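Risk register update: the risk of archive-format incompatibility is retired. Evidence:
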Amino acid sequence: MQVSRLALLLAALGSTAHAAPGFFRSPALSGDTLVFTAEGDLWKVSIHGGEARRLTSHPGLESAATISPDGKTLAFAGQYEGPTEVYVMPVEGGLPQRLTWHGEGAIPVGWTPDGKVLCSTRAYSTLPNTQLVALDPNGKGATVLPLAQASDGAMDDSGKSLFFTRLPFQGSNTKRYEGGTAQNLWRYDEGAAEAVALTPGYPGTSKNPMWWQGRLYFISDRSGVSNLWSMKPDGSDLQALTKSTVFDVRTARMDKGRIVYQQAGAIHLLDTKDGSDREVPVTLSSDFDQTRERWVTKPLEYLTSARLSPDGERLVLTARGGIFVAPVKAGGRFVELPRKSGVRYREASFFPDGKTLLAQSDESGEIEMVRLPANGVGASEALTSDSKVFPLAPVMSPDGKWVAWQDKNLQLWMRDLTAKKTVLVRTSTFRPFDDLAWSPDSAWLAFVETSTNTNRAIRLYNVASATFVEATSDRTASFSPSWSPDGKWLYFLSDRTLRTAVKSPWGPRQPEPFFTESTRIYALALQKNARSPFDAPDELHPAPVKEEKDKDKKEGGAAAEKGLPALDADGLAARLFEVPGVVGNLA
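Archived output:
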């Protein structure tokens, strides 16, 4: 395959939300000066907007800018020597001065009233806890604040009250996250024995504290989308300052009653005195190197999916949003499917006819399923138009009439391509569905569902009756179902061999019991009175005659002539057979 000759065009980052190409992050404000991150560097511009001036040029990332109270010094996180550390430099530009050697991803979060850099770091904790440290910008030492867990800090004007989140950002961008690492606001008063929780009644995220004239300003997703809020220092009198219903407010900085914040890749300026809120129009003086056309010499490194055609002669490959149909053997035709600029394809696979492809497309703004010609000639056909939640890879039924998939809301869906109707099959409250597998006659869908005891179990869904059958119980973990072509067996993997080489949990080293090679292959008989195909022939069950096998193959097989046998759901889980000779770490 001449895959190495593919040229994949990188689309320019652009947004109708702001007037210039670029993606502007982590803004900081002091007087009329605005500093932000774009293209991995720090830039400076007036609060009125206009052409920004680049302050840094190192290949590493410079971010998290924050300006000193006197407006003269800029603190930021940089990667000049490799790890992310805290640096300071004049706001007008100049040689950066390194303040930390922590090796733990130190990040500046603000300044103290007396002109010290407040940064978060894990360098002073014997546990993986983030703490706040006040750094002298002249490199004359650091003071660890007396809190075991603290991040995202801001002090009041006296410097005696600290507002902070105990935990740092938990790493994902999950909407309305309410897990155990959700950021909540706290207040610590100098000399107090304990910090006080300010948002204990809300389980979601409240972060990025900022202080101004007796009120605490912060970011919270309590309206469903992250917006700017304010409250009194005791947590009362909550007030919403912005009311976005689409894009989150990501980061924010305060300067004398004005808040500059990032939203949808643009920078906004909010004045708390009159409530005015406007976007700052920014243009960059840059060569925009990241938008140039680039040659990908090893495109297989960017491969996201690869699936065989029904006849096994071709592969459909998905890489960097493009779809390619390649011959398995040398000499065949290599096809790159055309696509509109800015459109990204995902999870391409063949329809049973081998002439068309099923793929996901973001052309409409949502991720929808489309049908595409496998030879690249002809227009695409939209198969769905009602997507609201990010869908995962679709699985086509053997007859080409149904498509099953799950989404990020842990919902299992099925689409009738003939009736053009989408059906919600099942919703999980725990974990995603795994290992979707269609029966050969497209009458049943097998899938894996995680039970409340965390064991995975196999369920079967009947398309015609919309009913479920429990193929395995939750007493043991079962997964990876696969139907036999004749419709008589459902093979799967299961962890049922629980043996350990550790003789006892007691001894000189007190090892824990460790289970290895616990997975075996099992088979469920889909009809009653079935005999394991791995049992040796006997006088009642002689070996099949070779000629009959050849005749079956020549005529398309008895199963194809007579149709597949009906699945007998009664007592299915009890008709269990172990496939001999295979055991190990098969998962």
